[in-house]
Amino acid sequence: MLIDIKDLYKIYHEGQESEVRALDGVTLQIDRGEFVAIIGQSGSGKSTLMNILGCLDIPTYGDYHLDGTDVTELTDKQLAHIRNKQIGFIFQGYNLIPALNARENVELPLIYQGVGMGQRHDRALEALERVDMADRAGHIPSEMSGGQQQRVAIARAIAARPPIIMADEPTGALDSKTGRQVLEILHSLHADGTTIILITHDNGIAATAERIVRLSDGKIVADGTREEVGL
Amino acid sequence: MNFTQAFKMAAKSISANKGRSALTMLGVIIGLAAVIILVSYAQGQNMAMRAYYESMGTNTINVSASSYRGDVDIGGALYDYCLQLDDLVVGVSPTGYLYSDPTIKFGSKTISRQWQSMGGGAMMSTGQYPNLILGNDKYGLCNDYVIAQGRDLSYLDVEKESKVCVLGSAVAEELFGFADPVDKTITVNGTPFRVIGVYESKSGTINVGGGEDAQWIKDSINRQDYIILFPSTMTRLFNNNQPIDQYIIKAKDAEALKEVTTLVNGFLAGFISQDNGYYYIDNPTNYQNEQAEADKLQQRFLGGIAAISLLVGGIGIMNIMLVTVTERTREIGIRKAIGAERKSIIVQFLIEAAMICGIGGIFGILAGYLGTLIVGKMSFQTILLPSAGITVGAFLISVALGIVFGLYPAVKASGLQPVEALRAD
Question: What is the ipTM of this complex?
Fold first, then answer.
């Protein structure tokens, strides 16, 4: 079991009148090599779930084992290592660093891994080639279209060859054609054995996943194939 | 992440925000330039004062002693007493002045006292007239004169009342130009004196440097080149055989000088009472010490001003770094999401701050050099340059400023939860 969470809660303003249960007792297992889409309306808790799965946030209560490791027990430094080596993030807003060009952005996770310069260059270019952006390696984000920026962001996510890719509304800011291109890249990564966790509110995109998890008010209300979930 | 990489990142981020980086550097530049100029100014001034005291001779005391009736040979007694202290005293010489202002001639060249009526019967001396001194074979040694040509007075010159003299470099130049004065004969009120030697110029060997008082110090040192030294026994010829009542004693070192001062004081106290005469011991070292105290005070004061200007610069850096952190919260979130450790974020921001300060420091040093040159030229008419110590120190201070004042924003930045940082606009 790659991801194993049990009775996960994320509660804001606990005990106060304004208490919000973003996650309200979530239990979920994801196997290595799965392509899982997490869907739900906005406010359903799907982004909170991804942040916790990606070790960007910590749960209020609950267990989270990632590849057998109890993540809730880890230090800041160990969490940073997990984010660096195990997980590649793709965000809705691309989140490239504006001052760095495409290649430098893609190199970032490798820099934090301590990969030497020559190898870093090669691996960054390789990742850019994978998303068909090698010819834009020297461009800074403001010189690229949204779709191009998202492809660079994907290259950055895969540069360190993590076993898991987490994508939070990766097509949300893109038109449907470029959105499909991004989705195709995710599927080809999946075909290579990468575990993909895709968060979306777009049922059409979710329908391409082999497993769909539907969240509502912080709880899992459906989990299964497209047919089982009813898409 | 290694340091080279962190440096590259810092350079990238500084060049991405050129305007803001330049403004931050400006604070450091002004602060450092102020420090360098102020400290150099103080040092320049102190250098001039030290040169002045050096020119007066080191480790010496001046003794004035006289008996009212002129019946006690204080000079002879003091001289003999000092000879007994030969493990402490290097030399002792009378310092006598002529009562009249004789006319000095060589060939067609004449040096004489020029007077000008000031009205109402008052007269004022105009132009330069040399210091005519009666001394012995140790006078040059005691006053730190060095023979350039010929020889100094000898014991025999004094004993035999030889009509010889040693010229200061300025007198030699005025009377002889570029010709060799040694063994030429000058006349003093018609009496022939053979020139046996010429002293080296003091103004040539002592570095006055800069200072508010540089001009009068230079004048004072130049005046020391404008002397003629005669054997002390010439008092018979010039001063009606009046005993010389001033002496200069040169001790081996500063420690010996203290002892000599005490001993001579005791000796003279036993020799002269209030009824039959007076004595006075003047120790230039005292002035020197007072001056050193004053210098320290001034340096502390200027240092305080400089420290304040640096502090203001440092707070400017902290302010900018805080703004930078706020502005780049999202970037910090991205970096943390990608796997940057807290340490990497701290190091990155610290290096950035240190780099801004370091670059600002280099420009500040350049500005400081330029300012020091201008101040030196304007205030002291000399080329004044900051010392290497100040330069290196100033640079280290500027880098340290960056690290100290960059620390708070850096720690603040690194402590953010990635998800919170990513939420920032």
Answer: 0.92
